[in-house]
């Protein structure tokens, strides 16, 4: 009871600025935590945490020799981290710098219509699956993928089933790399993606699947894979691989990941309202069948 009374007294003594401070800090943590999903960034955080804890323990236990070593280590520690974790740090700052203000504040407008893009992709994947043609398609979302653009060939073409199948045709020059889709356009093809280092993947999975998972680990992209050996369709999101998807399941998954949830509902409401207005103009009742 005493502890509860103490807490209540502290709450009563808080000013409005204290409440605002807590809300802002909580909101920042909530928004920034999803940015640190990369396994490399997690490794950096673990190293820094271990160094801080050990340095604190050496001070508490008065281990002067270790305390001196860690004090010297801190002088060069930042440079060592930059050298050792340069790729991970670059990705982390890329993720932070590419967070849009509207997204950060929760006021971002709905994404552009992606349904035709999804339908063309599903149709192409279905046919490539039957023909056992390998494919690796990356759907860029908020995180910019400029560093991977440099490894491929710029296209900037409107996405279509024929274009996708031509890119991944076995004898085509770009078929071994990944195709990156951004804003409904095929921006680049023949890209090299980072391979996942996780040991959770099945041993029967090849380079395409490891590249798909690796890309989904370092970014928020949605990656579609068609296996050249089995024709199986898979999707990697957030470091997780969903395998053996039917075309209908692939379409539903891409709709959920690439389209706003409210978009279909808003579209249906507009269609229904338009139909009712047409019926009224014809002299019919809105509920008339």
Can you walk through the features of this model?
This protein is of the alpha+beta class. It folds into 2 domains: 2-104, no CATH class; 115-260, 3-Layer(aba) Sandwich (YojJ-like (1), CATH 3.40.1700.10. The chain has helices spanning 2-12, 16-32, 39-60, 64-84, 86-97, 101-104, 115-131, 146-149, 161-167, 207-218, 247-258, 262-281; strands spanning 135-139, 153-158, 178-182, 185-191, 222-226, 233-237, 240-242. It has a 7-stranded mixed beta sheet, sandwiched between helices. Strand 5 and strand 6 form a beta hairpin. The chain is elongated and about 70 Å long.
Main features:
single chain, about 290 residues, alpha+beta, YojJ-like (1, 2 domains, 7-stranded mixed beta sheet, elongated, disordered C terminus
């Amino acid at each position: 009871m005493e502890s509860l009374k103490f807490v209540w007294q502290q709450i009563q003594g808080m000013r409005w600025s204290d409440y605002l401070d807590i809300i802002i800090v909580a909101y920042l943590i909530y928004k920034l935590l999803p940015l640190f999903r990369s396994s490399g960034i997690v490794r950096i955080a673990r190293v820094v945490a271990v160094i801080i804890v050990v340095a604190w323990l050496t001070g508490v236990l008065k281990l002067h020799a270790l305390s001196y070593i860690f004090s010297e280590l801190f002088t060069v520690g930042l440079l060592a981290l930059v050298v050792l974790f340069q790729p991970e740090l670059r990705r982390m700052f890329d993720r932070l710098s590419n967070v849009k203000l509207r997204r950060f504040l929760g006021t971002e407008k709905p994404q552009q219509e992606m349904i035709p893009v999804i339908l063309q992709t599903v149709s192409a994947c279905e046919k490539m699956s039957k023909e056992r043609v390998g494919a690796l398609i990356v759907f860029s979302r908020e995180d910019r993928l400029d560093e991977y653009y440099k490894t491929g060939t710029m296209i900037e073409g409107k996405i279509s089933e024929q274009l996708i199948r031509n890119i991944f045709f076995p004898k085509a020059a770009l078929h071994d790399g990944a195709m990156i889709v951004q804003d409904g356009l095929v921006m680049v093809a023949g890209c090299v993606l980072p391979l996942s280092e996780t040991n959770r993947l099945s041993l029967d999975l090849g380079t395409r699947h490891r590249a798909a998972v690796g890309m989904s680990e370092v970014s928020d992209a949605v990656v579609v894979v068609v296996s050249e050996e089995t024709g199986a369709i898979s999707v990697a999101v957030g470091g997780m691989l969903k395998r053996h998807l039917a075309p209908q399941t692939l379409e539903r998954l891409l709709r959920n990941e690439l389209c706003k949830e409210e978009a279909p509902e808003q579209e249906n409401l507009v269609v229904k309202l338009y139909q009712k207005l047409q019926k009224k103009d014809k002299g019919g009742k809105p509920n008339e069948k």
